[in-house]
Amino acid sequence: MQDSDGKRMLWVDHMLRIRDDQDQTAFAELFDHFAPRVKGFLMKSGADASLAEECAQEVMATCWHKAHMFDPARASVATWIFTIARNRKIDVLRKQRRPEPEDLGWGPEDEPDQADVMALQQESEQLGRAIAELPPAQRELIQKAYFGDLSHSEIADQTGLPLGTIKSRIRLALERLRHAMK
Amino acid sequence: MEQKITHHLTDEILMAYAAGTLPEAFNLMVATHVSLCDECRAVVESYDALGGEVLDQTPGNDVALTPGSFAATMALIAGGAPDEIRAQRPKDAVLPQPLLDYVGGGLDTVKWRSVGMGVKQAILPTSSDASARLLYIPAGTAMPDHGHNGTEMTMVLQGAFQDEDDYFARGDVEVADSDLHHTPVADIHEDCICLAVTDAPLRFEGLLPKIAQRFARI
Ligand SMILES: [Zn+2]
């Protein structure tokens, strides 16, 4: 947990270098950190090792190809990679389409403020700390909700997590995009 | 400007959407509602953030890659991005984008089937663990009786409906569990179009409007 503190802005910077300069060194560092976690996530979700390996590579390749769609005022890099891995899981393991909401992609001129990026990344760090401080049983339930296949009615009560603060940050980012779309 | 949505999806459903554990029909409901509701969109993205933290931080979650994994990934990248461009469809005043994808076009292309009393439905193609359908209910008509054996969610796309306690307009979702008994009626001013999803088996006889059903029981 400790070594991920403060790394969020570094990962954001890596993503921008991948997006702007196709920087392979930045990508290699991102890969070393996240690819084994994506593989582990997919194995816990039911993939065997070789399928999980193959999917982890595809997830990381998608991360490169879609770097222009990453919005650091709306998500941490870990969050963004999680969503790509989750979609791959639904596609490959559950063999279903994943309906996505109407896109609020950013236009050419709505690069977010650095202050908004910092604030969102700090919120995600606080969320990370809050998870680490939960009683083990509650933390395990949350992990199971994402890694296992808890049904929606089995999902744990989320009280105690600072989801409200990150939600209001994300809300601001959505307003910025809505505004840019007008 | 959309009017204010007052009936939202539950946190459990939104979290399960982020976790990727819902049946496809429920995912379609969430994606459709979230297309109209930034409040729930922000909640979903908060749960995405929770998923990101779980992915990043669960001890022992990382599994060693096979040798050559990075090189293989760079080769994938060199092969170019797979084209998965979402079909660009003209905007529809009633159907948000995720529904356009499932219908395969706008409202005028929906293949309605009559279920009696002027009520029509169109079942959408999803995985079989739950079902999704569009319902067309003439103004002032009682909604079809849903077989409440599981979770059922009904979202208004056009017009409005009313049950004993509440009024549901465009974007509003009624979430019903098996113990809820109610008789929603479409608002008199306009024909009502809804998206309804359920994880209970569809009971076709239950789709007959209330009056017809009561008559049949005599
Ligand atoms: Zn909502």
- Strand pairing plus helix content of chain A: what structural class? mainly alpha
Q: Which regions of chain A contain 5 or more consecutive residues with pLDDT less than 50?
A: none
Tally the beta strands of chain A: 0
Largest sheet: number of strands, sense, barrel closure of chain B: 6 strands, antiparallel
Main sheet makeup of chain A: none
Provide a descriptive summary of the structure in words.
The complex is a heterodimer of chains A (182) and B (218). Chain A has 182 residues and is mainly alpha-helical. Helices cover 65% and strands 0% of the residues of chain A. Chain A has seven helices and no strands. Chain A has helices spanning 8-21, 24-44, 49-65, 77-92, 114-132, 136-147, 163-181. The N and C termini of chain A lie far apart (41 Å). Chain B has a single domain (1-218), classed as Jelly Rolls (Sandwich). Chain B is 31% helix and 20% strand. Chain B has a six-stranded antiparallel sheet with strand order 1-2-3-9-4-7, with helices on one face. The longest helix of chain B is centred in the first third of the chain and has 20 residues, at 38-57. Chain B is globular. Residues 204-218 of chain B have low confidence and may be disordered. The complex binds zinc ion. The site of zinc ion has 7 residues of chain B, from helix 3.
Summary of the model, kept short:
The complex is a heterodimer of chains A (182) and B (218). Helix content of chain A is 65%, strand content 0%.
Task: Write a concise keyword list for the protein shown above.
heterodimer, A: 182 residues, mainly alpha, Rna Polymerase Sigma Factor, Chain: A, B: 218 residues, alpha+beta, Jelly Rolls, six-stranded antiparallel β-sheet, three-stranded antiparallel β-sheet, 6 helices, 20% strand, globular, binds zinc ion
